[in-house]
Amino acid sequence: MPTDPTAIPIAALPFPVMLIDDRQIVAALSPSLAAVLGDHVRGRHYINALRQPITLEAIEAAMKTGQPGLTRWLGRDGARDTTWDVHVIPEGRRMVLTFEDRTAAEEVGQFRRDFVANVSHELRTPLTALQGFIETLRGAARNDAVARERFLGIMERETARMTQLVDDLLSLSRVEEGERMRPVQTIALGELVVATLADLEPVIAASGVTVALNDDSAGAMVRGDANQLRQVIGNLIENAIKYGASGGALIIRVDSAMYHRGLRADGVTLHVQDRGPGIAQHHIPRLTERFYRVDTHRSRALGGTGLGLAIVKHIVSRHRGRLLIESTIGQGTTCSVVLPLA
Ligand SMILES: Nc1ncnc2c1ncn2[C@@H]1O[C@H](COP(=O)(O)OP(=O)(O)OP(=O)(O)O)[C@@H](O)[C@H]1O
Ligand SMILES: [Mg+2]
């Protein structure tokens, strides 16, 4: 038991808190704060312990005025920047500092800002193009039938691109909304692949690639949402066509049902393999981020917005499945989705 009845049992507190004594030394800190700042700050002057000017200014001000204050402290946890709200509470000639982790909220805010910036940017490009062509059609090209046809063609493509972007965004938000609800249909994955390939027939024919399908699944059923799984299959095949067409052949395989460690259950795997240029290793973990593209110009020219794999990832996660992307430069890419058996 502490002998001083006013002693604050800092070490027992379950949240990050620090006590600065009347000599301005860090007299105590709770275990969770020691984990952030390091144990070595105990016994040091608070200036050495915290270092950051805005935090120190707030402590000095609270000391002078005797009024509590609120400030920020920025930390680092491995590769991640962390943000803390720090309440500074004067206690006579001592100070109590409580730390509140704001990192998650900061990240959400940052994500939202990036997202809005990306969407605006993606919409602005086609809108600027449309505006330019409308002006030209009203002016210089007014009586030029050939130019008019060409410009209308471009305008149609740009409009289609915007529609696609909005459809993808809506589809992403719908998947996210339903992510906690498990799908209820039972679906033969192999059959769904055949049906999706039939839908994509015109795209495949136009691309000139040959598609080989090996279905070993023997009608294995997964629990799923047919529309969403069609999107998964379609997006992977479209990517393989768009970025891997130079390799000529696509190989699509549906494996026989087997145990998967990643699922800790039996599952069926779909592989979509192309022999295209492949993807450099450092890009792979980021491909499922919204709007992430290896080559933005190339993707845009092919009508892409970088949402396809983000949608795939969310759908697969709703289905409690796994997505794996493997690629070797010069040899091609294989995207695999494993889904638990129904
Ligand atoms: N099979 C592949 N081979 C090479 N690169 C690929 C392949 N699949 C995807 N990529 C790369 O990953 C990026 C992200 O793919 P994603 O499907 O998310 O977006 P996108 O195809 O650019 O646009 P969207 O799918 O929205 O039309 C692509 O821009 C491309 O650079
Ligand atoms: Mg795509």
Verbal overview:
There is one protein chain. By secondary structure, this protein is an alpha+beta fold. The chain folds into 3 domains: 92 residues, 2-Layer Sandwich (Beta-Lactamase); 76 residues, Helix Hairpins; 162 residues, Heat Shock Protein 90 (2-Layer Sandwich), CATH 3.30.565. It contains 10 helices and 13 strands. The strands form 3 sheets. Strands 7, 9, 10, 11, 12 and 13 form a 6-stranded mixed β-sheet that branches. It has a 5-stranded antiparallel β-sheet with strand order 2-1-5-4-3, sandwiched between helices. The protein has a two-stranded antiparallel ribbon with strand order 6-8. Helix 4 packs antiparallel against helix 5, helix 6 crosses helix 8 and helix 8 packs antiparallel against helix 10. The radius of gyration is 29 Å and the shape is extended. The mean pLDDT is 93. Bound molecules: adenosine-5'-triphosphate and magnesium ion (MG). The site of adenosine-5'-triphosphate has 23 residues, from helix 8 and helix 10.
CATH architecture of the largest domain: 2-Layer Sandwich
The overall average pLDDT, rounded, is: 93
What's the CATH H-level homologous superfamily of the largest domain? Histidine kinase-like ATPase, C-terminal domain
Could you list the spans in which at least 5 consecutive residues all have pLDDT below 50? none
How many helices? The count is 10
Q: What's the total count of β strands?
A: 13
Helix-and-strand structural type = alpha+beta
Strand content: 25-35%
How many domains? The number is: 3
The CATH class of the largest domain: Alpha Beta
| Overall morphology | extended
For the sheet with most strands, the description reads: 6 strands, mixed
* SSE run: EEHHHEEEHHEHHEEHEEEHHEE
For this structure, the quaternary state is single chain
- What compounds sit in this structure? adenosine-5'-triphosphate, magnesium ion
How far the N terminus sits from the C terminus, by CA atoms, comes to: 59 Å
Radius of gyration, taken over Cα atoms and rounded to an integer in Å: 29 Å
CATH fold-level assignment of the largest domain: Heat Shock Protein 90
Percent of residues in helices comes to: 40-55%
